[in-house]
Amino acid sequence: MKQPYLICIDDEPDVLDAVVRDLAEFEDTFPIESAENAESARKLIDELISRGERIGIIYCDHVMPGENGVDLLVELNKMELLKNTRKILLTGQAGLDATVIAVNDADLAHYVAKPWEKENLAKVTKAQLAYYFVDEGLDPQGCMEFLDPVIMAEAIRKGFMTDL
Question: Which of the pair, 97 or 27, is modelled with greater confidence?
Fold first, then answer.
């Protein structure tokens, strides 16, 4: 099975590079792609979906030129193939109203404030990947080291992952 992609969206190249660099430990197992704005992200996601790829996590900045990240995440959440995709708002500038919209309308999985700590980003990623695998009913063999063990054990205990 092809592993799901991790998508990073941020209009600042230095920030985008930092996110990708801090996720590098996942890249050998989970392909990482990036986009610098909502339009590029939409094209990238459409291309991946057309190839039959899965998207496990979308990390998205909020304040970007043109369309903001919350609006993009709300739009993407309406796509059936992305319903279980974990959406993470990675920003330092989303106000309460925007965050509430993201939680309510984009099914926001997590909020990570800039600047983030690499260890925290890895912890959040492992948890969100575990939830994605459980929600999609995916076989975690070959990538268990990248999935939160407590979440995976709980899913097995509750019978969500009976094939293991």
Answer: 27
CATH number for the domain including 20? Answer: 3.40.50.2300
1 closest CA partner among 50, 54, 49: 54
In a domain, 56, yes or no: yes
Its pTM stands at: 0.90
Residue 157 lies in a domain: no
CA distance 2 to 4: 7
Predicted pLDDT at 111: 84
Extended strands (E) in 37-161: 55-60, 86-91, 108-113
Q: Measured between alpha carbons, how far is 128 from 148 in angstroms, rounded to an integer?
A: 8
- Contact between 101 and 111 under an 8 Å Cβ cutoff? The reply is no
| Sequential DSSP letters for 73-102 | HHHHHTSGGGTTSEEEEEES---HHHHHHH
pLDDT of residue 97: 58
Structural domain boundaries, residue 111 = 5-124
Instruction: Quick: pLDDT tens for 96-131.
Output: 555 555 555 557 788 888 889 999 999 999 999 999
